[in-house]
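Handout, section 4.2: multi-component inputs.
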Amino acid sequence: MSDRRKNILKIIILGDSGVGKTSLIQRYVNKKYTQQYKATIGADFSTKELELEDINGGKATATLQIWDTAGQERFQSLGVAFYRGADCCVLVYDVTNEKSFQRLKTWRDDFLLNSNVSNPESFPFVILGNKMDVDDSKKQVTTKQANDLIIELSKTSNDGAGAATNGGVTVSADEGSLQSNKNIPLFFTSAKGDLNVEFAFQEVARKALQQNQYQLSTSMFDDDEDFSNAINIRLDGSNVDSCQC
Amino acid sequence: MSQNNSSKHDSSIIIKQQKVIIVRLLNEISVMNNNGSNLIESFKHFNILLMELKKNNDSPKEYYKLYIEVYECLTILLNYLKGNHLKLFHLTDIYELIQYSNNLVPRLYLMITCGVAMLHIDDFPHIEILKDMIEMLNGVQNPIKGMFLRYYLLQRSKFIFKNEESESKEKYNNINTEFKVDFLIANFIEMNKLWIRLQYQGQFKEKLTKLKERKEVELLIGYNLVQLTEVLDTEEEKVAIVLYRENALPRILKQIVSCRDIISQEYLLDIIIHIFPEPYHSDLKSIELYLETFLKLSPKTNISKNAISLISRILSYGDSTREDNLNCVDLEGELIFSKFFMFLKLLNEERPDLPFKEFLVVILELVKLVLQLKNEDDVVVTYLSQIFSFINFKIKDYNITEELNFLLKKIVFSLKGMDKENLYYKLATESNEFHEFIVSLNNDYIKYEILELIISSTKPNIESFSIKNLSKILRFFENNSYVILQKSDLVLRCFYFIVSVKVKYNEDLEGSVNSQFEGLQFCKNWLLSIRASFSKPEQQLKVDLLINGLINQYWKLVKKLSILKIKTPKTFKNLDKTLFQQIFKSLSNLIFELKNKKYLLTSLILSANMAIQIFLLDIANDYIESVIQQLNSGLSTNDKHDILFLLIEYLQKERKIYYDNNFKEKYEQLAIKLTFISFDLSNVFLKSNCLLACTNLWWTGVSDQCASQQSVENNPKRIYEVINRLIKYITSNNLITNYELCYVLLEVLNKVVYFFIHGEIEYFTINYINNIFKLLKNNLRFLERENKVFLEQQQESFNEENAIDQLSTENMFLDSDGNIKMVDDCRCEGTAYKTINIDEEKSLVAFKKNLLVFKNFETLKEYIIDQGEVDERFNLLNI
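Output:
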């Protein structure tokens, strides 16, 4: 009667205040939407279980731990320690708010700076352009702008956290090997109109699972920590399908 | 610092190490082999890692980092407990067992984890467990540890507060909403106490550090309220609002008031307003509760900030309901307004210590609320009047700084852009309070800006622009010397509203002309009444500008009449002509108020022009006569020339009307009079200029030649006389210089040739013209000699390279006063020749003048030669 071992995939959602981060999570996790705006304070997660194909094509059950965050910095007083251990970061902007779009890069850099991920070059991000239900006349960010930004972010992501400290100056990658298939997926969503939300989070989960498995495989060779062999045990456990029923 | 870092690092390593051991102990395979006894073993390691949370040296931020790592480890335990209950052990036993743990903080973390595992399972008494856990937590009085523990409890048990779409919905229905609210508020109150204690605990930390720490942990307490929103969310909105305003909110606010802590009050009110949904705040009872609370806050707590947030939330609710066309959720705007207004009054009474700014920033937001109410304009004006009355009342008690002035201005400007038409105009004309407000402003420029806004947002020609309203608007400018003296165009724009040129055919024409005339007269009287306060000469000139502007409006009214005359002669005929007389009488009175003589006379001539348009020849003549009378007093020669010239132009233009209306004699009389006055001008250039213009008075002009057959005709004899007298004057006067003589002769020649071309050969014979040519050429020789002498004198002082430049007359011409002008109209005398001394300069100018005369003469000769090709007569001229 024992549980099948689960992958917990940690997802961080970032973006300016009012772009719809909480609404997207509500829509995805609870299939609910409310027009009323409630500011998010601090950070907290919702969980959602789903089945995924893993790298090897096998089925895997995963628990998404989706961290909703405060878009207003003043509501994030305890800092962003929860960035650590993330498997995927979702950047959200509001298609009717150009400024929220301009700030995506800052959010990305802030994440890389504080999350301490081991592979900033290839760490998965997903961008969501939310509020697509709004009348076209009110939209401020074109698809082209969005695509240009993705190209820009993809280019600069290989200097990772350094980008934040170097004032965004792009440094050419010295380890080009890690830079492969680096393209940030972009989804146009509407939490209100339930457009693309499920689909986008599927992709988020897939990316997160890849990252999770990549992390496990690299930390195996991590000699810095004196209990590295202990992790092997856990790894063994995770790879054995131990359903005993 | 480095030591701190290393201890932090150590903590982190300890947690990681213990985690590895725990994972090994609790992992499935181990569990199978060890029959559950590993759990007891693992508690030892949990204790070790939880001890890291018992240390208390770090800042809350660092503590939070450890907390997150610990949280992950405890998740392993939670899942293990949930998964193996009844399989390997009974959770009640574990819960018991944990009570024997030695250390308080680790014990509580473990206990909560176990308790929460029990909450996940149906068979346990959930409410009892929750009560037990929260009671146990009272044992921790260390602020940071206690707050994090309580936060941990909430984070773990949040699933019971949420309405998550899973089977859990059924499961946790056994905990009713009221209990959840009680539970959260109890935790909230305890946490708030801990939070405030943080301020006073530990002796050595600096105040600033403490403030920083308090700000850092604030979101832990906020989390209670976040969970409360979740609980209320599980209910229908109406039920939720009642629960909120009757149960939750009063208790929370009571705690906020009674804790008397500034940080707590400011933060908690801030987040309450932001995290609960808008409909909760738009409820009248809730609003009342908030406003009562604001009044009771500690003296240093910022009230305005929260009041502003509250209003803006209500506004945003109004917006969203409007957008969704949910008009049924209509805000009770009037009640909301009166509640806030009452709040301002109470605040004023109870908090005399508050600076004026605090009131103004709230008012600024309140004005937006007023504008959003879907009421009629009248109600809006009434509310705004109340607001301004409040400001007027308060403004007296404060020293109004620039910052306050800016806010006051902002309040007025925030009325802009609303789709309330003519709101400013309505306020300005209907609200005494608004009037008093503007008058009491102590910054002239801001006053001006506001008046400018009022005037520019007022649509001209609105029906309601009555004298009463006009007087109210004009009152703004009284005693406002800044506007009168510096920004007079604002007043002029007011005048501009009075007369509408547009003719509406179905309107009562006489009535509208009459009322517009009354408006003008009102302005006239107003202007004359204020001028007493502006008696300095330079001020009088500014008042002249205003008078001039008003004169323009009189003309506009007359223009309207002349349009009527052309478009609907019948209607025009029926109009009362005595009204016209009155208009012109009033107009001339106004004109005679001008201090500047030239303005005055020019206006009279232009008015005569207007009078002529509607056949008021008597009036026109009266005007012209008075101009002629005034010509000899108080005018410079140049001004006199200009006025005279205008008169000549006027008379020449209106010749036909004079003739057609049996005023031929009068015309002759005036023409002769003007000619005599022209002859009396002392300056020879101006004299010749006017006289030559006078010749036109007896000439019909080219285009009028057809008309000449009817009434008007040329009178070449008179022209001949005038020209002869001019020639006689300049040739017989000893004081006339060669240059003057040549200049005038050349002008005369030009004129004579003009008449010659147009067929006047009876008086201007070829012989006559040739004689003038001869005279001119003889005199030009003198000028040539003068120039030659000048060049010889100057030969040495000019250096070769500059000579051509300096002697050039490019872009220059001779003006009617005989002086040189540049093409771009700046006088060249004295400006371009600074390097030469004055005597030399004078002779250089004379030299150039001569050159220009030669040039003009050459032009005339060329013209005559050209004409010769088409007109044989010209070949007979001896040039």
